[in-house]
Design brief:
Length: 280
């Protein structure tokens, strides 16, 4: 089981059901939950007129630290009423970006939790930044959850978005604490590619056999996308089978550009109604 969870405070979504359910998840797993508040310190702006003056930057930084301290006090008051091992931590982001600071703290957690990033939310781009930085720089998985998520029980029906890639393989391994307690595990392959460089002669057979050796009840489903985005097929299937969790490999800009985080991963992050465990 995961024994240390990190919830970076990205936006106001982290104060509602996402926070409550993170507490519930930590309690069910007997895990320690860290709610991380990172001051929204200003980023130095360099233009044709030069950089921000030190006085202006210092004033903005002080104001950001004061806002963060007030938020920490509010969250501590709420968490004090909840059972379990919960810590509200104020991070230092004076010299680095806030998402970089979160990634540093995430290296000492088994799992980070982030709210989904619907395009309608004003902080959608910041959530994308956090998710990408945590995926690429923490070495740990990220659980992205919709705003209405509840963790009344651990996930019972899990769908794995399988591709024969390093990222997907890592995601399966990182999700093992959830997979071991699930009642059913479905391996979903969209537009399988046969051959040695693809899914092999029987798509999904190898990963299914691997998971079966761990004592998991596994079934394999293959389907065509019919030209629709892969993310749409994955999310539609997760809704159809009423999955409690989708497991997927996550990509980022360090690999070739828009094919990556700007593609399937980004659309999943924006549109999901199902919790998704990403791993890189």
């Amino acid at each position: 089981m995961f024994k240390s969870l990190l919830l970076p405070y990205v936006n106001d979504l982290c104060e509602g059901a996402v926070l409550s359910s993170s507490m519930e998840l930590a309690e069910k797993m007997a895990a320690h939950l860290v709610v991380l508040v990172v001051p929204d310190a200003p980023r130095p702006v360099i233009s044709e007129f030069g950089a921000n003056s030190y006085d202006i930057y210092a004033q903005l930084t002080t104001a950001a630290n004061e806002r963060a301290s007030e938020l920490v006090a509010k969250l501590k008051a709420r968490c004090a009423k909840m059972p379990g091992s919960i810590e509200v931590r104020l991070a230092d982001a004076t010299a680095i970006f806030s998402s970089d600071s979160a990634a540093l703290h995430a290296r000492y957690a088994d799992l980070s939790i982030l709210p989904a990033a619907p395009t309608s939310h004003p902080d959608s781009s910041l959530t994308h930044e956090y998710c990408e930085n945590l995926l690429l720089n923490s070495g740990q998985p990220v659980l992205v959850v919709p705003a209405q998520w509840t963790a009344l029980q651990l996930p019972k029906r899990i769908v794995i978005a399988w591709q024969p890639t390093r990222e997907a393989s890592r995601a399966v391994r990182d999700a093992m604490p959830f997979l071991r307690q699930a009642e059913s595990v479905e391996i979903l392959i969209v537009d399988p590619k046969l051959g040695a460089n693809g899914h092999g002669p029987e798509p999904g057979a190898d990963i299914a056999a691997h998971l079966a050796r761990h004592g998991l009840k596994v079934q394999v489903t293959t389907q065509a996308s019919f030209g629709k985005p892969i993310s749409e097929s994955l999310l539609a299937h997760a809704r159809f089978v009423e999955a409690d969790l989708l497991v997927a490999g996550g990509y980022g800009h360090s690999r070739l550009s828009e094919f990556l985080f700007g593609g399937v991963t980004r659309r999943l992050l924006q549109n999901t109604e199902t919790p998704i465990l990403f791993s890189h």
